[in-house]
Amino acid sequence: MYQLTFSLEEFLSEYWQKKPTVIKGGFQDFIDPISPDELAGLAMEEEVDSRYIAKQGNEWDVRHGPLTFDKVPEENWSFIVQAANHWHEGAAQLVSPFRQLPNWLFDDLMISYSTPGGGVGPHIDQYDVFIIQGSGKRRWRVGPKKDDYEEEFGHPALRQIKGFEAMIDETLEPGDILYVPPGFPHDGYAIETSMSFSVGFRSPKKQELLSSFADFIIANDVGDVHYHNPDLPARSNSGAILDAEYQDLQAMMRSLMDHPNMMKQWMGEHLSHSRHELDIISAEPPWQNSETYQFLEEGETMRRLGGLRAFYYPEQPHILYINGERYELPEECGHTATYLCDEEQVTREQLGKQLDHPAFIALLTQLVNLGYWYPVE
Ligand code: SIN
Ligand code: CO
User: Fold this and answer.
1) Cis status of the peptide bond prior to 285, with omega within 30 of 0
2) Cα separations (Å) of 303 from 105, 167, 322, 344?
3) 342 CA from centroid of ligand 2 (Å)
């Protein structure tokens, strides 16, 4: 089990979305949760999102997965696997120590393998990222946040910048963590063959919230109503949009957001939608409710699929938003239902008496059949 050696609470108040920092020995006696061979295996898979990045002099070569590794140079290259927590249970465990952060902000665990000299060049991300150094050493430089960094056209897929003055310049060793908030330029290259693990958080953007809300409104046939003004007076200035008319139209739009329950439903569904492919394997043959009950009753464990997003609002704990869909349970199931979202595993000990609640067992069975929860072997 991975454990942070520092207080996340203190970290949040001092650094989160404020300034970058290096936490030496953020994990003690760190051991990679995955081997380079296993990681390469993932990068060779069709469904897994991966990239190969190599540098020769000033030339950058970028290839998107599925990757092959038969003709790779000795040095100066790396490959990256995105959302590795969706595909590798051991790697997913590296996310657990960060669970004091809201899961709705979490994006994915990215893993990179670099040969000496390998890296992606100086760039800026719009992510909060904890870069955990695994085996090997990597030198990282981080610069101050500024608006006017000049773009470098090394390769269109890399979105590099020309350079920056470093405020952090350190060599990371196994177990060290570099935290970089959005907007701070950074550049890391391996000094020796290196594995790094990036736990990434992504804050939603205004634009995408509004656009997703608009999609929801249309999909649910809400607000299919025209402007209506039976008291229209005659006017001399037919080209004018009168202030009262402007106000009415604006109020019409705003009124769409005045349905708290609808807004909550959309946001729950939106936030629980995964941006990365999930490794979904539905149960075959499907489970019966009685089998789910029996399984847990015997002390066995159900685990949530890596990367699956499951949320609730504390004031409506019986309504769950899982992988973009809304699930409603009888109100008395509320406090059990939240376990599904707060914990990665479900056991009899956690459920207590609620194990006897047929509606809860029926939901869990449905989720198991969808491949969202699975029995731990
Ligand atoms: C990398 O691990 O090479 C890239 C990480 C990053 O800076 O985004
Ligand atoms: Co970056």
Assistant:
1) yes
2) 21, 42, 14, 6
3) 29
Fold type of domain 8-201: Jelly Rolls (2.60.120)
Q: What pTM did the predictor assign? A: 0.95
pLDDT confidence of residue 344: 93
Tens-digit pLDDT profile for residues 138-189: 999 999 999 989 998 888 888 899 989 999 999 999 999 999 999 999 999 9
Fold category of 289-375 in CATH: Malonyl-Coenzyme A Acyl Carrier Protein; domain 2 (3.40.366)
Cα of 170 vs centre of ligand 2, distance in Å, is 16
- Cα of 96 vs centre of ligand 2, distance in Å, is 21
**Mind listing the pLDDT tens digit for each residue in 47-72?**
999 999 999 988 999 999 999 999 89
The residue with tokens 């509320």 is: 334
Question: For the chain, what are the domain ranges?
Answer: 8-201, 207-258, 289-375
* Residues in the chain where the model's pLDDT stays below 50: none
Which residues in 75-192 belong to E strands, given as ranges? Answer: 77-81, 106-114, 128-133, 138-142, 151-152, 160-161, 168-172, 177-180, 186-190
Q: Which residues line ligand 1 (CB under 6 A)?
A: 78, 112, 119-120, 125, 186, 188, 196, 198
Token pair recorded at residue 285:
């043959």
Q: Residue 95: what are its φ and ψ, rounded to 5°? A: -85, -30
CA of 14 relative to ligand 2 center, distance in Å: 21
- Identify which of 120, 132, 172 to mutate to test ligand 1's pocket (most ligand atoms within 8 A of the CB): 120
- Atom 8 of ligand 1: nearest residue by CA position: 125
Atom of ligand 1 nearest to the CA of 196: 2
